[in-house]
Backbone:
């Protein structure tokens, strides 16, 4: 019987998204820049507390765990693309039935067969169901593959993590401004817990003697929220040039810090004497490492525009290897170059009175580095949190139906006020990082990707069958790896919780 192949060819063309694409190497640079952010500034202090031997082993192991779960995110994204393509195919079929009701039954069945053949195929031809063409965010994956309870837990975990991010950003910026504005801490004050009660300015004036460093911190915090907070009421997007500018400053700052630490080691020798193993520092190190290797919530947006994804897993492993080497270099040089390390590494380079103008400029640049980079990221994180809060409590398909005051005012205020109150009374970044990294970070980086990939595999197997192979399947696809990740996550959360209670008791 005569068939119309031109119709079949038209509807079976691959579904792709338009937009700017880049090579795999450019994509890996973006992932590198995403992972190596301000979280790396907390590594040297945590590295020194846990000991250089234990920290090295832990950092490499946590890098491997982060990479494993990154492959889970990629596999789940491919599954989500397959589900959407399958739904599109079913819609095409239904439309074809409606348009060809007068056609003969045999002709229609042949058309459906041609429609499916290029997609469901053997081992020699890769399946076009599974792809990474369409950017599908973690929230969309959760809506596709998780139950209502799972989706609620996902959004709650993500919101807690983003609240922690905003708090860490606020405290880091305010502490950096405080250290630049206030006078240098006297060399005879070695206990860092007493720094906050010191006068901000070394002056005999009655007013300045009562104005402490912590007062300056609070003023800087309120000023920061006054400048950055209003952006949460609008839609602000990163521009390409802003990203390039902040990335360039970030790498310049890291290069300067490593170079200065190496110079101090060569000139003065090792001033820091971290132990080889100190298990009491594990909770802080764990939180810092999880925070420093976090990229999973933004991974889909970075990998979807990459051209040539056939060896994406191998290239991603290379990226993680380079990041691990960079982190070890930053942490080792800092741990041995300085006798005392601040929670935020840039605070070890606070400006000092010296005759070298160039050195003083470099010190001011490093001290203000968190201010420049975090101030540009704060509005984006805040808007992301606001949108996720709306998705959790409102029906996003009919946002315009809600009261404008409720929608435009309440959620931005709920986004900004909790981090402000938290950091107003608590400026200890190590506590914030420990909680955000150890709890919410564990959920975002370990538990959510594992639960998503397990549910996605089961869903796609029931929907497409075993004959359709996912070419982006994680190399850690054995169920034993997923069980190991979950057991590791639960064990770490329990250990961190026990340690926190023991230290507080």
Residues:
């Amino acid at each position: 019987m005569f068939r119309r192949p031109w119709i079949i060819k038209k509807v079976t063309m691959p579904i792709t998204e338009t937009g700017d694409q880049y090579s795999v190497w450019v994509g890996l640079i973006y992932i590198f820049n995403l992972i190596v952010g301000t979280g790396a500034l907390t590594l040297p202090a945590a590295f020194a507390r846990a000991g250089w031997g234990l920290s090295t082993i832990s950092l490499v192991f946590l890098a491997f765990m982060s990479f494993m779960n990154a492959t889970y995110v990629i596999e789940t994204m491919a599954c989500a693309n397959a589900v959407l393509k399958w739904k599109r195919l079913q819609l095409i079929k239904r439309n074809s039935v409606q348009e060809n009701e007068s056609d003969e039954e045999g002709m229609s069945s042949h058309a459906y067969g041609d429609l499916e053949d290029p997609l469901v195929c053997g081992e020699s031809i890769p399946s076009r169901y599974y792809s990474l063409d369409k950017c599908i965010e973690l929230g969309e994956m959760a809506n596709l593959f998780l139950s209502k309870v799972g989706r609620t837990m996902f959004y709650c975990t993500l919101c807690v993590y983003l609240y922690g991010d905003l708090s860490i950003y606020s405290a880091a910026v305010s502490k950096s401004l405080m250290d630049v504005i206030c006078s240098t801490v006297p060399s005879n004050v070695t206990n860092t817990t007493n720094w906050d009660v010191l006068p901000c300015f070394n002056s005999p004036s009655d007013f300045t003697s009562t104005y402490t460093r912590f007062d300056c911190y609070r003023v800087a915090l309120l000023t920061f929220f006054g400048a950055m907070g209003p952006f949460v009421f609008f839609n602000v997007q990163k521009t390409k040039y802003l990203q390039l500018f902040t990335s360039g400053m970030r790498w310049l700052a890291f290069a300067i810090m490593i170079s200065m630490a190496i110079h101090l080691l060569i000139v003065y020798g090792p001033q820091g004497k971290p132990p080889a193993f100190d298990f009491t520092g594990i909770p802080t190190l764990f939180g810092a490492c999880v925070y420093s290797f976090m990229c999973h919530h933004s991974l889909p947006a970075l990998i979807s525009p990459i051209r040539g994804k056939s060896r994406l897993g191998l290239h991603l492993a290379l990226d993680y290897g380079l990041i691990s080497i960079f982190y070890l270099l930053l942490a080792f040089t800092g741990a041995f170059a300085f006798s005392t390390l601040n929670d935020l590494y840039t605070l070890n380079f606070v400006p000092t009175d010296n005759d070298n103008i160039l050195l003083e400029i470099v010190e001011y640049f490093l001290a203000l580095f968190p201010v420049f980079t975090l101030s540009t990221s704060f509005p984006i994180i805040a808007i992301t949190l606001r949108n996720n809060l709306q998705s959790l409590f409102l029906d996003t398909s009919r946002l315009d139906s809600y009261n404008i005051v409720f929608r435009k005012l309440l959620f931005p205020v709920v986004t900004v006020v909790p981090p402000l109150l938290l950091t107003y009374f608590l400026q200890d970044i190590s506590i914030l990082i420990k909680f955000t990294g150890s709890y919410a970070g564990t959920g975002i980086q370990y538990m959510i990707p594992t639960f998503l990939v397990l549910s996605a595999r089961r869903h796609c197997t029931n929907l497409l069958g075993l004959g359709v192979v996912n070419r982006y399947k994680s190399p850690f696809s054995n169920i034993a790896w997923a069980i190991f990740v979950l057991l590791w996550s639960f064990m770490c959360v329990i250990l961190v919780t026990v340690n926190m209670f023991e230290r507080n008791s």
Remarks:
- The chain has 18 helices and no strands.
